[in-house]
Amino acid sequence: MRAADRLKARKVLIVGDSELESGFAVLKNMADGSQEQIALDSVVSVLASR
17: which of 9, 23, 27, 43 lies 20 to 30 Å off by Cα? Predict the structure, then answer.
């Protein structure tokens, strides 16, 4: 998260072992700290729409 903050990233997609196991990634909004779960099979379409 520090690297994303230094790069002034607006959003971060978190995909770790538990996310791969569950089939959901976490999309974090760096501006307000909010997070939402996104199905791995829809990550591209969700990110393209934002």
Answer: 9
* Contact in structure between 26 and 37 (CB atoms under 8 Å): yes
8 Å CB contact between 23 and 43 = no
The single-letter code of the amino acid at 28 is K
pTM, rounded to two decimals: 0.84
- Model confidence pLDDT, tens digit, residues 18-40: 999 999 999 999 999 999 999 99
Quote the longest CA-to-CA distance of the chain: 29
Q: Enumerate domains of the chain plus CATH numbers.
A: 2-48 (3.40.50.800)
